[in-house]
Design brief:
Blueprint (H helix, E strand, L loop, with lengths): L16 E2 L11 E2 L7 H23 L5 H27 L4 H5 L3 H10 L5 H22 L4 H11 L6 H13 L2 H23 L8 H24 L5
Antiparallel strand pairs: 1-2
Protein name: Ferritin-like domain-containing protein
Organism: Microbacterium aurum
InterPro entries: Ferritin-like (IPR012347), Ferritin_actino (IPR059125)
Length: 238
C-alpha cells in the first residue's frame, strides 16, 4: 500500500466540511471530524493538479487537425493554467515556496494522469473533463476547512473552466459515429475509480473507521452524483 506524503504527519488537525448548496457548488453541507489534510498539502496538491490538467490539454493541441478544436483545447488549457497560477499566488502570499509544496505530489499525480490518459484524443478530453470536474468539486468541499484561504481557493476553483467546448467536440464525435458512445461511456466509468482514489488519498487518515466512513460517504455520494450529471449531459451512461 502506498503511503501518501500527507499521511505521515498527523500533528495538525483540520475539520473537513462540505459547503452548503449555493456557496461554491451544489453539494450539501456535511461536517467531518479532523480528516482534512494540512493546508500545505491541500494547496500543494490542488496547484499541481491544475498544472497537470494544463499539461495534458496542451499536449493534445499539436496532433489535433481541426483549427476550431485546437482553439477549444487552448481555451481549456488556459483556464487550468490560470487556476494554477492563482493557487501558486495564494501559496506565495502565505510565505511558502510553491515548488516545495507541489513536489511531494509530482510522482503520484503524474501516475494518475498516465493512468487516465486515453489511447485516443477524445478519451483524453473526456478524462480531463471528468477528473478535473470531480477533483475541483472535492477540493471545494475540502476548502471549508481552511477559513479565508479556503474561501479564496474555492473561488479560484469555481472559475469558468472553459471545458464546454470539449464537451461539444465529444458530442459531435458521438453524433457522427455511434460507436464512440459505448466506448466513451465505458471509459468514463473507468475514470471514476482512479479519481476517487486521488480524492480519498487526500484525507489525513490512511484508513477510516466505520464512523469516519459514514462521515465521508455524503461527500463521495455528491461527487458521484455530479459525475453522473456530467456524463448524462453528454448522453453517456455514467
Amino acid at each position: 500500500m502506498v503511503t501518501w506524503p500527507w499521511q505521515r504527519d498527523r500533528t495538525a488537525a483540520r475539520t473537513l466540511k462540505v459547503r452548503s448548496r449555493g456557496d461554491f457548488g451544489d453539494v450539501s453541507r456535511v461536517d467531518f471530524a479532523e480528516l482534512a489534510p494540512a493546508i500545505d498539502t491541500f494547496l500543494g496538491q490542488a496547484a499541481y493538479l491544475q498544472l497537470g490538467f494544463f499539461e495534458t490539454l496542451s499536449a493534445l493541441i499539436a496532433p489535433t487537425p481541426e483549427l476550431s478544436h485546437k482553439e477549444s483545447l487552448s481555451r481549456a488549457a488556459g483556464a487550468a493554467l490560470l487556476k494554477h497560477r492563482e493557487l501558486v499566488e495564494v501559496i506565495r502570499e502565505r510565505g511558502d515556496d510553491p515548488l516545495d509544496l507541489m513536489l511531494p505530489f509530482r510522482e503520484p499525480l503524474d501516475a494518475f494522469r498516465r493512468a487516465t490518459h486515453g489511447a485516443r484524443p477524445l478519451e483524453t478530453m473526456l478524462s480531463v473533463h471528468i477528473t478535473a470536474g470531480m477533483l475541483d468539486d472535492f477540493y471545494v468541499a475540502l476548502s471549508a476547512s481552511y477559513g479565508a484561504t479556503g474561501d479564496r481557493v474555492a473561488r479560484i476553483l469555481g472559475q469558468d473552466d472553459d471545458r464546454q467546448a470539449l464537451v461539444a467536440i465529444i458530442a459531435q464525435a458521438i453524433a457522427s459515429d455511434e460507436e464512440w458512445k459505448s466506448l466513451l461511456a465505458l471509459w468514463g466509468r473507468r475514470l471514476v475509480g482512479d479519481t476517487l482514489l486521488i480524492a480519498r488519498g487526500a484525507l489525513r487518515p490512511q484508513t477510516l473507521d466505520a464512523a469516519e466512513e459514514r462521515k465521508v460517504e455524503p461527500v463521495f455520494t455528491d461527487l458521484l452524483g455530479a459525475h453522473s450529471r456530467r456524463m448524462a449531459a453528454m448522453d453517456l451512461d455514467a
